[in-house]
Design goal:
The model has no long low-confidence stretch (mean pLDDT 78). The protein has a two-stranded antiparallel sheet with strand order 1-2. Helix 1 packs antiparallel against helix 2. A hairpin with a 2-residue loop joins strand 1 and strand 2. The protein is mainly α. The protein has one domain. 92% of the residues lie in helices and 3% in strands.
Length: 134
Amino acid sequence: MEKARRKIEGDLHVTTEAVGDLERAKNEIAQAVQRKEKEMAAIAAKMEDEQTLGSKMQKQVKELAVSYSLSREKISCKCENARRIHGFQRTDGIYMPDILFGALFSSMQRLDHCLRRIYLSLFLSSEFFSSVSS
């Protein structure tokens, strides 16, 4: 009888330790799940912020493109008017309005190139975020 009681107490002790180990493992897993949920929430918030920023940038780029187009038209008109008003006055064999027009045209080409690169980067970032969010 004493032998059976000790065996049962031993089994109870082993079972109690096993239950304690399982409870600790369960708590660790629950904590890991909570950490991952917090990380996911932080990533989702960051993605939302990035998408909002991307939308703002796209809007700003569109506004800049419109402003650029208007400025380009105004400059072309002003250059044409200057050519008409001042005629073909030469300075060292070069027409002055042509020099100004060339410089402005070169600047507009560089601006156009920069806008294209901005459009491309915004497109690529929006494609990336749409693929990540789905």
